[in-house]
Input
Amino acid sequence: MSKLSIPFGLDPEGTKTPIEEAQRKSDYYRCPECGEFLTPRIGTQRQYFAHKQGVLEDISCSLSSDEGVEKMIEDLRTSDIEEGERERSIRTYLGQRHDGGIELFGIVPSLDWDQIQEDEDVDTLLENVEIEATGITHPPVPSNFHPSEAEVTLDLDPTADSYELQISGPDALGSITGTWTTSGLQHGDLFVGDETRAQRYNSDHQVRKDMWVYLVSKNPPKSEVSFVDVYDFADVSLVGFRASEKTEPFLDRYGGGLSTENYGFDADVVLPAHTNPTVEAPLYAPPEEPVLVGVTPSEEVDPIFEVVSIPKDANETVEIDRTGAGNPRYYTTEIPSDGSRRVSIHQRNSDRHRLIHLHPSEESTFIDATEPESRRIGIEIQDEEHRDFLSPIEGPSSKRMPVGFNPHLLHTNLEYVGPEDLELEVIATFAEGASLGPTISRDVTAISDIISEVIHWVESGCNELEIRFNGIGAVSICFPQGEQ
Output
């Protein structure tokens, strides 16, 4: 029997529902290929969609074979960003400027160093590029596409009916040449993201709670609604609000039947700190700087997440270890040494993707170099002679304290470094015959809250203190007991 499952079913509203989020309902979900009913098989060991018994006797469906299912799973790994760039579509955004005004802008990719042959000079290639633009107030110049640039931003005229960017040049620049297009603002357009960078999506895109929404409307609400902002913008009105339960009726009415998503996931950049966790803008940081991405599913489900390169074929897909329903799980990487790296956090069996765009820059706009907690995560521990940093991500992760160490020094010599409010599990293991134990554990968000208790543990025979960083990894400190 095949272990493959049809990735998702369509509910009566046409919403794509991964098997992990399906309900035990008959004649409710339909096959996305043939349109016939699916039966959700939900067991403790395995969950999968299968065609309703008997429906394949009269029809054929590509998802009745392993090959068809494998193809759909692979197709779902391709992010909407990669698909859009393949089709030469300008990604379109709305964002609020520092002065409070709204701007419309587009994004197209810059070159990637991997796309340039070693015997080619990128500057010489760019000298042979020609650019023509329509509806773009400040057309880009060839140097804007240099691999040292993270992306190319286009200032769009909000009154234009459409936008076009024609790029011609050498064959070696095939990743950017061609005619890039997108349509102008239209009633019902949906932009989702953050106040400063919300991307236009198709109308069937469900809105994740707590995301910022801009709706383009010709007939905005006339009466004052406390949870929305209305902006006059060019020839249309923009209605801005943060998606929540109370905005559901509003979203349905003014968004043409749109709804907030009950599932989905959050993908937040934990390190470097001081990044905006919801905006898919490039993350600038020094080369080889550690990057930690936290991925959190809805409370009810424990789906598989994977890291997919953009483009998909650039690197192998990496699966992120599961940690249980609703629990965060983490992906570690680093800022590339030269040029951008773009990956998508993808929820398997769905078309949900979240862009993570890393770009090297010594002058980071996101990191305060004076604050060490913005650059790393771990425990600082000092004995009489040495101060060590223990990291769950890289470098040493354990330390053995010297014989005769005074545990009362831990009040000042044991310190957590990293993002605020990260959940930590502290586990004390005791020597045989100790008055406490054999183990004691505490869940905290600040080591300082239990430091007095830790000192008591060490005095009572604790020979190892393990600190687990909420699915990221762990560090340990060993205390000699009864040794001379």
